Amino acid sequence: MIPFNKSYVGGCELEFIRDAIESYTLSGDGAYTKRCNSWLSKELGSQFPLLTQSATAALEMAALLADLNPGDEVIMPSYTFVSTANAIVLRGAVPVFVDIRPDTLNINEKLISGAISERTRLILPVHYAGVACEMDEILRIARIHKLLVLEDAAQGIMSSYKGRALGSIGDMGAISFHATKNISCGEGGAFLTSNPEIAERAEIVREKGTNRSKFFRGEVDKYNWVSTGSSYLPSELNAAYLAAQLDVAREITKRRLEMWERYNSEFLALERAGVVRRPTIPPGCIHNAHIYYLILPSLAFRTKFIELMKGVDVSCTFHYVPLHSSPCGVEKGRLGSEMSVTEDFSERIVRLPIWPGLEEKQGYIIKSCHEVIQKLLSRKENY
Q1: How far apart are CA 94 and CA 72, in angstroms?
Q2: Whose CB among 76, 288, 354, 356 lies 3.0–4.6 Å from 158's, allowing a Cys bridge?
């Protein structure tokens, strides 16, 4: 079976982990954590990045830093991972779900203003598949209504919007280094901000609500519990692995983009024939080839497509079940718009395998996709 995802190993991961072990500094904020933070600052343009245990942890930090209280509202898409909403709900706040655009599957910026109420405190755009949301318009709306903007750029490492790295455009951002992401350390993430006031508070929130980091820098003679917080620091072992991955981030991205472009070229004819819909990359957006997907004709068509591809040893998969229709989403959130695009596309999207090392098998995957699609089109069933 050709797996849907396989983490890339650059070569120095074991060397860096061994070095971290021999340094006897295994807890957070050691040399490798600092090395990763430095890379994030330089490459993403975020002045105050902080490595975290996950993007989930970074989102939870951001929700704390936004001072969300019970009853406050946060505008976000329904078509996203549960962590985006969980970070909000943990503060007692209400996710307000807005429909997505049919081209990028990102939050439809034209629907945001209509979802704003007197309780709205935050806009939370999600950059789906590493393709940027329309951030200029989202920031404009936020300024008018005096709202914070938190970017869920979990899938967005090495992607940009009009020259600005995803995650570094809004007031705060979250990046993921989970095993399913382009650059990974198994479990990991980063909190991003360039706001000095937010950064100072973020450092405290990340360190269990203490000013421990100031103590280690000699800025205070002892550290105290000064704020609400939690433990969001990653192990130095994870940071060491991640440092090796970041060293080859450009190579990983280049290889993924080459595979993405090959997929996109090979499915052009099917799109022109009206059989599938390929991904759309708007002008000004540079993506990282995190996902290659097709929009198929129907839910039944997708179900059979995945089944038949599995039969020829290719693992393909759908993606999110919309949060607004999930049990917790119904209980904890509210609708900020109609959700027709979210409901339609979530039933028809299929993701194809894409990871460095798959290049030699990509031709077989493409050939199998064409054969399976033609087989389904030739059947009498109403797909």
Answers
A1: 6
A2: 288
Q: How many helices (H) and strands (E) does the chain have?
A: 15, 13
Mean predicted confidence (pLDDT) in 120-136: 98
How confident is the model at residue 383, as a pLDDT?
66
150 with 170: CB under 8 angstroms?
A: yes
CA gap 98, 83 in Å, rounded: 17
- CA dist 157 and 80 (Å) reads 17
The mean pLDDT of 238-245, rounded to a whole number, is 97
CA 151 to chain centroid, in Å, comes to 9
> How far, in Å, CA of 371 to CA of 270, rounded?
12
Q: Is residue 285 within 8 Å of residue 131, measured between CB atoms? A: yes
Q: To the nearest whole percent, how much of the chain has pLDDT over 70?
A: 99
Give the bridge partners for 97, in sequence order.
76, 335
User: Is the confidence at residue 214, as pLDDT, over 90?
Assistant: no
Nearest in space to 43 (alpha carbons), one of 318, 340, 248: 248
- Candidates 232, 251, 247, 242; CA nearest to 17 is 242
19 alpha carbon, distance to own chain's centre: 30
- Decide: helix, strand or coil at residue 264: helix
Q: Cα separation of 192 and 345, whole Å?
A: 30
Return mean pLDDT, the chain: 96
In total, the chain counts a number of residues equal to: 383
Other residues' Cβ atoms within 10 Å of the Cβ of residue 6: 14
3-state secondary structure 19-50: HHHHCCCCCCCCHHHHHHHHHHHHHHCCCCCE
Tell me the C-alpha distance between 118 and 188, whole Å: 35
Q: Where are the alpha helices (DSSP H) in the chain?
A: 13-22, 31-44, 55-65, 82-89, 112-115, 135-145, 196-206, 212-216, 236-247, 249-266, 268-272, 299-311, 327-332, 340-348, 359-378
CA separation for the pair 291, 287 (Å, rounded): 10
